[in-house]
Amino acid sequence: MTAHWRPLRVADIPAVSAIAKKVHPDFPEDDAVFADRQAVAPDFCFLLEIGAAPAGYVLAHPYRLCSIPALNTVLGRLPEPCDTLYIHDLALLPAARGSGAARQIVEILSHRAAPFGPLSLAAVNGSVPFWTRMGFSVTDDPRLAEKLASYASDARYMIARQLAPEPSKR
Known about the structure:
The chain has 170 residues and is an alpha+beta fold. It has five helices and seven strands. A seven-stranded mixed sheet has the order 1-2-3-4-5-7-6, with helices on both faces.
């Protein structure tokens, strides 16, 4: 079966919550956080489906470079100015891993990030090698140390090179 990304809808929040509980049990977040990200940045939040079954999601939103929101926090609105597209979470169920879906959504987000600057994220669960393969580099910024430690002892802030904007569809 083919995996495909589609825009995340409010009705998908229970599926996102279920996936998050399986993939990120050590980083619990309320459904209100997932709904908030979809509401403040609908152009950057997607659900991965294999067939008709939810198999992953990505939540991203414009934010400030070298800054990260606290875990399990509703934003309500985006800060101004925004100079990065922050990947809040990318989660794939085992059935979707190795399908190329992660690289596909990172490329989509990179193209959409053009007005804001580079992609950024907080890597957890030993995922620095994965994100490095996706074009991200660890950025050590002492201002982030305390907030990163609240995520996990191995959390690292990473920034990606930006891809060229998507070609216009004609």
